[in-house]
Write a structure and sequence with these properties.
Length: 188
């Protein structure tokens, strides 16, 4: 199963970047819906993002290796997006460890990583709801004890109509490439 997820995600990423600079990014499929709780305790859904370009990824607050690197890359894009960040582009980081990552914990994680919460939400929910969202997006997570999660880094760009257009596998993507893809979606 994991091999199929990896192959699908890698294929989607490869196809998304074979187009010429002036071509539209391909549609991977409809973004899976979710209804979760943000870092301030408010309900957050995919429908709340309609009309905006969204970056949806998966992290957990006690991660000490790849999650902070992924979050830092995303944080580095806030300034280049300028006035579009928050108004036209939203970042969404969904925890893969909801038993530890309460809204308060996620709020602290966001602050520690320089996330501008006017354009970036950190979401949690029940373990069942989180597991459903993880599977629906084609990601993977296996909790290996409290505060330790083995998971697949999958970041999806969702267009204003709620369709996945690009998926980045891993955390070693080029932030400039993501910025170009975001700007391409904003021009549509």
């Amino acid at each position: 199963m994991l091999c199929l997820v990896l192959l699908a995600a890698a294929s989607a990423h490869g196809l998304a970047h074979q187009a010429k600079d002036d071509a539209r990014l391909p549609v991977v499929g409809a973004a899976p819906v979710f209804a979760l709780t943000d870092q301030d305790g408010a309900r957050s859904t995919l429908d709340d993002l309609r009309g905006k370009v969204a970056v949806v990824t998966f992290i957990y607050a006690t991660c000490t290796d790849a999650c902070p690197l992924l979050t830092a890359k995303m944080a580095s894009l806030q300034k280049p997006l300028a006035a579009d960040f928050g108004a036209r582009v939203r970042f969404v980081s969904i925890t893969v460890d909801p038993e530890v990552d309460t809204p308060t914990v996620l709020h602290g994680y966001a602050k520690a990583h320089g996330a501008n919460l006017s354009g970036w939400s950190f979401l949690t929910g029940s373990p069942a709801a989180i597991d459903e969202v993880i599977r629906a997006y084609g990601a993977y997570a296996r909790r290996a004890g409290r505060g330790n999660v083995d998971h697949l880094f999958l970041t999806s760009l969702v267009d204003r109509q709620g369709r996945i257009r690009v998926q980045y596998l891993g955390y070693r993507f080029n932030p400039d490439e993501m910025l170009r893809d975001l700007r391409s979606l904003l021009r549509e």
